[in-house]
């Protein structure tokens, strides 16, 4: 017998029932599918979600995003059960650097301070002096002294932070494949097509793209900026999932993707069915061994203290 088709309403009802039974909070990144953003208790950027994970009184955190985000929640909230519904959802930039490579880089730069973007594994965070997100990178880097700074792993975010703070930054050679897709030509094309629009890009974009934009902002930075701006049209240079939230919260404003190809496939792996399955089976739990969690938590706590 063919399996009965179950629609979104079926899974939403199931999720609502199970989240109460489990005393669970559902956190979703701003790039998640619209229906996932809609059922989440909070949709936000990496900083917002890590703050919420650190102070939630729920017993279970269901993290709709990619693995490093769920790991961050598990590091800052060790007494909670943290679940990643799409267990294969990973960020390729995270895989660009290993703990061993960071240890070697630190050995080659004695006296340097190591800043790790949250888009790193728990093991790499354990080697950091301090973490940062795209929302607080400038504040975190500016809070450091005049010593050399090792910035891991995003060379574009590192270049942006160096430009904004004037600090001496040596970056790892990583990057986000989704943001790398946005070229200066794409941006110029959309600017010609929509001359009234303000251009907002994510600081993971290439520096020559950032230079063309009116603002470089984290995803939540864009949400706040759009709300407060008197402009009516915006060209959005980040993963296109954010446009759903921007349009929903600002029905009187218009949003155009800077490039149609800015889709992060890993961010789209979470579905309603998988969230319901996660709550039902309590899979897939993120467990960080104590010897990794403790130093990683210190680096994250230093970041949370700066911002
Ligand atoms: P935000 O923290 O700005 O939401 O960015 C996370 C991310 O993965 C960007 O690609
Ligand atoms: Fe990683 Fe880029 Fe996807 Fe963000 S958009 S999760 S940095 S691959």
Folded structure, characterized:
The chain has 307 residues and is of the alpha/beta class. It folds into 3 domains: 8-90 and 267-288, NadA-like (Rossmann fold); 93-175, Rossmann fold (3-Layer(aba) Sandwich), CATH 3.40.50.10800; 182-261, Rossmann fold. The protein is built from 15 helices and 12 strands. The protein has a 4-stranded parallel beta sheet, with helices on both faces. A 4-stranded parallel beta sheet has the order 6-5-7-8, sandwiched between helices. Strands 10-9-11-12 form a 4-stranded parallel beta sheet, sandwiched between helices. Helix 11 (207-210) links the parallel strand 9 (198-201) and strand 10 (215-216). The longest helix is centred in the C-terminal third of the chain and has 17 residues, at 290-306. The termini are far apart. Bound molecules: 1,3-dihydroxyacetonephosphate (13P) and iron/sulfur cluster. 1,3-dihydroxyacetonephosphate is lined by residues 30, 45-46, 119, 133-134, 176, 202, 204, 218-219. Residues 66, 91-93, 119, 176-179, 204, 239, 264, 266-267 line the site of iron/sulfur cluster.
